[in-house]
Amino acid sequence: MDGFQRGYIVPIGGAEEKLKNPLILQKFANLCGGKDARLAIIPTASKLKGAGQHYIDIYRDIGVDQSVILPIEERADSEREDYLRELKQASGIFITGGNQVRLSTIMGGTAVAKLIRRRNAEGVHFAGTSAGAAFIPEHMIAGGRNTPTPREGGVILAPGLGLTNRIVVDQHFRQRDRLGRLLSAVAYNPFTIGIGIDENTATFIDPDGVLEVVGSGAITVVDPRELSHSSMGSKPTGKPINLINLRLHLLTKGAKYDTYTRQVFLE
Amino acid sequence: MDGFQRGYIVPIGGAEEKLKNPLILQKFANLCGGKDARLAIIPTASKLKGAGQHYIDIYRDIGVDQSVILPIEERADSEREDYLRELKQASGIFITGGNQVRLSTIMGGTAVAKLIRRRNAEGVHFAGTSAGAAFIPEHMIAGGRNTPTPREGGVILAPGLGLTNRIVVDQHFRQRDRLGRLLSAVAYNPFTIGIGIDENTATFIDPDGVLEVVGSGAITVVDPRELSHSSMGSKPTGKPINLINLRLHLLTKGAKYDTYTRQVFLE
Questions:
Q1: Which helix (H) or strand (E) covers residue A248, if one does?
Q2: pLDDT of A177-210, one tens digit each?
Q3: In the β-sheet with B155-159, what is the strand arrangement from edge to edge?
Q4: What is the pLDDT at residue A1?
Q5: Given B113, B159, B231, which is nearest A139 (Cβ)?
Q6: Which of helix, strand or coil describes residue A35?
Q7: In order of start, what are the domains of chain B with their CATH numbers?
Q8: How far, in Å, are A122, B158, B194 from residue A223 at the CA level?
């Protein structure tokens, strides 16, 4: 970690394999230093007791025994000095699933959120699964309708953690039929790239903005750079909209995508 | 304009006085050079023919006779070289009212949007009224319910132009009873300051992030920095939510507010 190259950003589509062959979590642990990794696990998205401990146990099975839980439950917890100290020592930060609006309401604008952004910029790696993945970008999908058809009002956007502004992330993608809401998100303002991530699938985004697909499913990339028309601004709420000239990629493990040049590289 | 100090950002709450005593538009014109001002007027939010010409006429009455209209109607127009040339020559950029989702869908991610951001960073002043004001921030209020009570699902956010990330703007504020949707926007992620602007009222945000109120109404500032609890992440969509420890200011003409230190200064 040289302090100049930013850390990886790893959105995971949820329901990642945890026991038999935890490929995604193993790869993230290796990135963070393998046996020497020190992971800070943030279970704030979940209301289930034990969500943090569950990942402590999984990472221990993988060989990482220095993980800690930061049990942030209220906004005041996001200012705690002891949690900030842990984040300063961590080689990786992991946010569990649950509800991404809990993450934005409890951590947004706090010292913890600022420190996570700074640590990632300094080279510390970040992974989030499900809600933890949705929370990553500046523009976060907070909710919406699960349908294949994009509509005005088909997606609820909210400000996220802000590790990147280049993508917007949706998860449990194929499993919950979310193409419509990802397209709605992209259609509002076509500056951002939509990334839909299937369950047990992740994208490892390297410091240069090139992502690689890992896991058993696919990712869906919606690139609106050449979009010539969107009727999002002229249809009543809830009505299907026109979107002309989107570029779409479906990518499986090993495939890479450069979020700057917008090129695909196959193995 | 020294190329190092950014330009003013001027969100106007809509329905600004245009004939008898057009205080807000006059002040903006003076800022841009008075008689020597060269304004680029973008009527894209409106579907009414003549929306651009209307402002050309008003600004001519004020004494600015070098304004031009950029009639951007489709995404391809946002890449036109002649429009980019006009933006490079303008001393001020003005976006009219209408529907802000037309602005984000037609201009988002295009050469025009990038150039407006760059020109404002270089010192060119920017004003937008109504939809043109909503479009200013990174996180734009695209729609929502007009009620005083904040709710999950009470606001529709979308990525905006991105001239600033420090505020989110709502307009026609008192006239359309929009406190609820501004509070909903702030409650999602309390890093941003909510600014509700009444009709015939504007905030002139100077290069240091200090805003001054101009016009006949008030602005409503919602500062969530001390927010200790938000139930946005735990209530079903549409239900009213709890928000504890928001700071609220109502400010009228002459009052100033520093968006960095969050202090109010009265005349």
A1: strand A247-252
A2: 888 889 989 988 999 999 999 999 999 999 999 9
A3: A139-144, A155-159, B155-159, B139-144
A4: 44
A5: B159
A6: helix
A7: 9-265 (3.40.50.880)
A8: 28, 17, 31
Distance CA B98, CA B51 (A): 9
Tell me chain A's radius of gyration from C-alpha atoms: 18
Q: What is the pTM for the complete model shown?
A: 0.87
The verdict on a CB contact (< 8 Å) between A160 and B191 is no
End-to-end Cα spacing for chain B: 27
A54 is catalytic: no
Q: How far apart are CA B127 and CA B91, in angstroms?
A: 11
Hey, what are A63's tokens?
């060989």
Q: Which chain A residue shows the shortest CA-CA distance from B44?
A: A233
10-residue mean pLDDT profile of chain B (267 residues): values are 80 94 96 97 94 96 95 96 98 97 96 98 97 97 83 88 97 87 90 95 97 94 90 78 87 94 90
User: CA-to-CA distance for B115 and A179, rounded, in angstroms?
Assistant: 31
- Say yes or no for a CB contact (<8 Å) between B224 and A192: no
- Amino acid at residue number B247: R
Q: CA-to-CA distance for A73 and A80, rounded, in angstroms?
A: 11
Provide the residue-wise pLDDT of chain A in tens; the chain has 267 residues. Answer: 455 799 999 999 999 999 888 999 999 999 999 999 999 999 999 998 899 999 999 999 999 999 999 999 999 999 999 999 999 999 999 999 999 999 999 999 999 999 999 999 999 999 999 999 999 999 999 988 777 778 877 899 999 999 999 999 999 988 888 888 899 899 889 999 999 999 999 999 999 999 999 999 999 999 999 998 888 888 777 778 888 888 889 899 999 999 999 999 987
Tell me the β-bridge partners of A143: A156
Best mutation target among B105, B145, B146, B245 (most A Cβ atoms within 10 Å) is B105
- Test mutation, B188, B192, B243, B260, chain A, max A CBs within 10 A: B188
How far off is chain B from A138, nearest CA to CA, in Å?
Answer: 9
Helix extents (H) in chain B: 23-31, 51-62, 81-89, 100-107, 111-122, 131-134, 179-188
The residues near B137 (Cβ < 8 Å, ≥ 6 apart) are B160, B161, B162, B163, B164, B165, B166, B167, B168, B169, B192
